[in-house]
Amino acid sequence: MKLSTTPYPLLVACGLSLTWSASALAEDYRYRTIVKTGDTVPDVGGIFTGFGNPRINGQGQVAFSAMRTGDVGHVGMWMTSPHASGGLEVIMLSGVQVPGAAPGVVFGAFSPEILAPEINNTGNVAISVPLAGLPDSNANGLFRYINGELSKVAIPGDAAPGIGGGINFHRFSETPGFNDGDLMAFGARLSGPGVTPDNNTSIYMHWFGGLNLIKREGSPAPPAGFGWTWGANSPNPLSPALLPLVQIAPTGRLGFDSQLFTNQGATTSRWTGWPGALSHTMLGGNFSPEFLPFALVHENLGVYSMNLSAEGMCFYHSVETNNGTASGIWRRTDNTMETVAYEGMAAPIGSYKQIWPFNPVASYDGTVAFTATLNLPDSSSGRALLRNTPFGSSTIVMQSGDPAPGYRDGVTIALVGNIKGIDDEGRIYFNSSVQGPGIDGSNSNGLWRADPDGNTHLIIRDGQWMTLEDGDTRQVEFVYLYRGSGLHTGRLPAFNNDRQIALRVFFTDGSSAIIVASPDCPGDLNLDGHVNVFDLLLLLEGWGACDGCPADLNGDGTVNVFDLLLMLDAWGECF
To answer: In whole angstroms, what is the distance from residue 300 CA to residue 235 CA?
Structure first.
């Protein structure tokens, strides 16, 4: 494999610095440095000093929060753009006047690790950011960054549409849903006359005519005539004091969970649909396909435990059994409910001992990836990563004790870790710890991609070395990959269908960087995971003497017919 230190020519013309490198034990992937600590911040000046977890869209654009030196704007949000200075476009900065707000209301400070821009596949962004200069110093506001312009969606004190009576927005969910149609969905807390703890939460979304009220705690819930009443939104389980997260599909269809009051009392429920056309996907007390009733009260996991798919939703919930409650994963497609797995059910080997929360993720066709601990026939227990296809059976993708792909012989998976997501081809991204010869605390974690064909590729691991664009070789200390909710939920993860992965990487020298990992695919000059006519055009553009450039596939200093033959040999989809 040839490593290039000369940036891709078209991106150089736009000012974006790229460098590729690889490690001896992670040769399936190559790495592009988006930005690192110590880099000068384009346009606004200062130096980048730290980053949050990045997101990536289907075009390969990366959005992230970061800290910088400077008297004003020491924290902000950026995205990659080939048309921006230095390849980075600033979305917002702390201390800067808020658009659409009274003079003196400015963006406040925040932790980049907590708040980040939500980018969609068209390259637009939604943000939720704390504001300074309002009566409530902890309140945040919602904004959209559309075609390079930041505009207000709602801030505290704005009138809450669809309610009237002087009722205003008070607080918002810290992570809005944002789909490819630039529609935003979010939870909101209300204030004003008659607002009490029993009716102060709500869900809104963009729809025809602006912001539409989806539900308000204490108001009637569908279907009409049943006498049901909305209860509180399920809060963000990672920050219970904050408001819920809402999923929004490309069509505008929503997904959320909520407490519900029926004539049988309080229960939990999960919903999907559009304004005025909501239906419950799951209702506590109703029967699962196994004729086991869904629990009325359930571990509160919100949208972290569900995923919208093309025609429904998969979700994590408990059922009542003769031996108490058993957690499981379920999939609803249109009006058909399927059981994916639940504790005590037969597994591909043995039975399911524990279904892990926060883990079920689904692709657009409803294929589910999840983590479970199995009761094995030899009376031992093992943690496993599994894949389940719609109306199909579950298969084991990886188990604790399996050989660790990409590592030397004798290194095995110590503990199957967290699932980071699944793409539309059924490729699962997950991390795990490893054990074996040469493994210690400095190199015991890896990140992989498991394909439906049974092949698993090591993406990056702790302890490996990589060369950044400054020519400096640095050792990876640890890596973060943002999970999101799913590729079609309005909360993109940090990977896309082209197998590009946006990572926050920390190095042993104390520095850090935003890195995009892509399949190592000679001939894939535009880094989209395919070798096709677009790459051919780039090769022809670089024809002739071109020492060290990416189009020089055989590294002989000239782009010529030999490079063309190599490209044709690699034609098609990368690994």
So the answer is: 8
Question: pLDDT value at position 546?
Answer: 83
Distances (CA, A) of 55 to 52, 58, 295, 445, 495: 10, 10, 35, 21, 7
Q: Pseudo-torsion of CA 515, 518, 521, 524, nearest 10°?
A: -90
* Residue 511, both tokens: 């520095």
List the domains of the chain with CATH numbers: 530-575 (1.10.1330)
Residues with Cβ within 8 Å of residue 46, at least 6 apart in sequence:
40, 68, 69, 70, 73, 74
Averaged pLDDT for residues 91-112: 94
CA distances, 176 to each of 106, 117, 187, 205, 487 (Å): 20, 9, 8, 10, 15
pLDDT tens readout for residues 437-478: 999 999 999 999 999 999 999 999 999 998 887 778 999 999
- pTM value surpassing 0.85: yes
What's 539's DSSP letter? H
As a dihedral over the C-alpha atoms of residue 74, residue 78, residue 80, residue 86, rounded to 10 degrees, the angle is -30
CB 520 within 8 A of CB 529: no
Those residues whose C-beta lies under 8 Å from the C-beta of residue 203, and which sit 6 or more positions away, are 185, 186, 187, 188, 213, 214, 215, 233, 244, 246, 254, 256
User: 150 with 99: CB under 8 angstroms?
Assistant: yes
Q: CA 434, CA 147: separation in Å to the nearest integer?
A: 44
Q: How far apart are CA 532 and CA 570, in angstroms?
A: 9
Give me 308's structure tokens: 């919208």
Q: Is 316 exposed, middle or buried (0-12, 13-18, 19+ CB in 10 A)?
A: buried
Q: Which residue has the higher pLDDT, 537 or 20?
A: 537
72 C-beta neighbours (distance < 10 Å), count: 11
pLDDT at 2: 27
pLDDT tens digits for range 408-433: 999 999 989 889 999 999 999 999 99
Provide the mean pLDDT of the chain. 87
Helix then strand count (H, E) for the chain reads 3, 42
CA 138 – CA 243 distance, rounded (Å): 13
Going by C-alpha positions, the residue among 292, 405, 417 that lies closest to residue 345 is 292
Helix axes 561-569, 533-541, angle to 10 degrees: 160
Instruction: Give the pLDDT of residue 28.
Output: 75
Asked if 172 and 188 count as a contact pair (C-beta separation under 8 A), the reply is yes
Task: Return the structure tokens found at 563.
Answer: 């490079």
pLDDT above 70 covers a percentage of the chain that reads 91
CB atoms near residue 447 (< 10 Å): 24
